[in-house]
Structure prediction request, 101 residues.
Amino acid sequence: MSYRRALHSQRKAYLPMKDFLLKIKSCYENLASCGEIISEHEHVTAILNGLPPEYESVITVVTASQVPYTVQGVSTILLDAETRQQVIVNEVPSSANLVSS
Prediction:
């Protein structure tokens, strides 16, 4: 029971996405080692529920899809989204310098 609670209480916060996904996977594996099987849907839900507001657009796409996303599919989308956010953050100071020059 505590492993399941741990699974659903994980939050990304300031962790890199890869580390957050590994924490979720560790909880999943702990449950599996105790004979508790969680569905792909529950695994995906635990991931999505742990995301901060800046991932709301990804959450909307995944939850609105007619075809359920796999854990691997959601993980790929989230890692790509994090990379894109980092690129945008790194570009902002450059464009701010152009404006102030």
In short: The chain has a mean pLDDT of 90. Residues 2-100 form one domain. Residues 48 and 59 are 6 Å apart (CA to CA).
